[in-house]
């Protein structure tokens, strides 16, 4: 199922950029072909991927039909599908799973006449193999009345090694990607060409647990964050480092300034002019302290309107008798149902909560808030709980 979701995501992007493809009738089938190919190991010294299931999916735009063919790779990684319907209106996706990572290749009907190749890789748990070529913080809007800022962060990742980074949340090392956010950030929306894994919130940002294949990848995330006064600042801790880190602000926005970075010449992108600040050669785990100064302030009317419409103002008008009644009900429920309170206590959740706890613990250790002995002990305890939950789940199935 995971491989099929990967393929569907790839094809959706392909259809969106090629709207001129003709719609064919469902019965318009081409001649049957024998499709041959090879599974190769892209890791130096890696074993031949033999006896591994290879799946060929056939998609036809507009017809809503999917044909699936399966075979196994041979001793030398070779494979062959027989009686594959070659249709000029269809797109084909070759997928396979190797060491729990899904690899995919898209092909057209004309490509089927030539041998297809799928390259797989051995895995590594070392997140240091992934680098950041460029990271840019783009300020999209500044709302003076609400005193918050909209932003999008663009990240160009590259894995120059010949191994796929496979995150491991149960190990003692930090083997997944993490990205910081300003204090109070909300409305996070992460988009990436990385497939699989999860987006996990941590204390100062979020983590991505998707495998990172060799080559280049793009990740971007939009969010909003608040400010008070005329400036806001936070440390942009870049755990993977960055060859280039930039802040871009459109000239149409109020004339704010960015300190902590070097000012660069104006940049024109798609008809919009941006002011640019940047830093180069940021080492892993380091990062500049970005300060955005000269922020616009709300007017007197804006402040009054916010006060009148704020939740705190309306809460102040709630009758005290009603609040006391709710408090009595709460105390009564706690006294009568202690077991229910224990069931909701932190740490009694499932594997997802344990994963988040490990990510948060790693983040605290990285910021120097925990001694190494305490960090190792607590992480070992959480890891044991994850493994126990996994064994319990396997036993139940």
* Secondary structure: helix percent: 10-25%
- By DSSP (H or I, 4+ residues per run), the number of helices equals 7
What does the main sheet amount to?
Answer: 7 strands, mixed
CATH topology of the largest domain: Immunoglobulin-like
Shape: globular
How many strand segments?
22
User: Averaging pLDDT over every residue, what do you get?
Assistant: 81
Number of separate domains? 3
Using only CA atoms, what is the Rg? 27 Å
Poorly predicted runs are 11-28, 337-349
- % residues in beta strands: 35-45%
Which structural category do the helix and sheet elements fall into?
A: alpha+beta
Indicate the CATH architecture of the largest domain: Sandwich
Helix/strand order: HEEEEEEEEEEEEEEEEEEEEEEHHHHHH
Measured distance between first and last alpha carbons: 18 Å
């Amino acid at each position: 199922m995971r491989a099929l979701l990967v393929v569907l995501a790839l094809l959706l992007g392909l259809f969106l950029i090629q709207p001129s493809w003709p719609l064919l009738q469902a019965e318009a089938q081409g001649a049957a072909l024998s499709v041959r190919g090879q599974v190769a190991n892209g890791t130096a010294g890696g074993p031949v991927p033999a006896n591994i299931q290879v799946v060929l999916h056939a998609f036809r735009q507009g017809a809503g039909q999917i044909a699936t063919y399966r075979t196994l790779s041979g001793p030398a990684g070779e494979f062959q599908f027989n009686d594959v319907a070659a249709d000029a209106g269809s797109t084909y996706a070759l997928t396979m799973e190797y060491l729990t990572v899904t690899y995919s290749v898209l092909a057209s009907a004309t490509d089927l006449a030539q041998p297809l190749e799928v390259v797989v890789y051995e895995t590594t748990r070392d997140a240091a193999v992934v680098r950041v070529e460029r990271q840019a913080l783009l300020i999209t809007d500044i709302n003076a009345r609400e005193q918050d800022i909209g932003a999008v962060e663009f990240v160009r990742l590259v894995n120059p090694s010949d191994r796929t980074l496979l995150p491991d949340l149960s190990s003692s090392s930090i083997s997944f990607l993490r990205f910081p956010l300003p204090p109070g950030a909300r409305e996070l929306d992460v988009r990436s060409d990385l497939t699989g894994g999860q987006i996990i919130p941590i204390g100062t940002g979020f983590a991505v647990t998707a495998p990172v294949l060799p080559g280049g990848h793009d990740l971007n995330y939009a969010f909003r964050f608040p400010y008070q006064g005329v400036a806001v600042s936070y440390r942009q801790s870049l755990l993977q480092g960055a060859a280039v880190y930039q802040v871009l602000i459109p000239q149409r926005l109020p004339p704010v300034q960015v300190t902590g970075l070097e000012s660069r010449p104006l940049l024109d992108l798609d008809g919009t002019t941006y002011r640019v600040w940047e830093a180069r050669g940021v080492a892993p785990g380091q990062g500049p302290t970005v300060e955005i100064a000269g922020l616009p302030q709300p007017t007197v009317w804006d402040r009054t309107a916010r006060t009148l419409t704020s939740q705190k103002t309306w809460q102040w008008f709630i009758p005290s008798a009603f609040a006391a009644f709710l408090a009595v009900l709460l105390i009564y429920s706690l006294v009568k149902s202690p077991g229910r309170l224990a069931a909701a206590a932190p740490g009694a959740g499932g594997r997802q909560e344990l994963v988040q706890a490990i990510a948060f613990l790693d983040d605290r250790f990285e910021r120097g808030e925990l001694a190494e002995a305490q960090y190792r002990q607590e992480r070992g305890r959480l890891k044991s709980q994850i493994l126990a939950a996994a064994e319990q789940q396997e036993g139940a199935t």
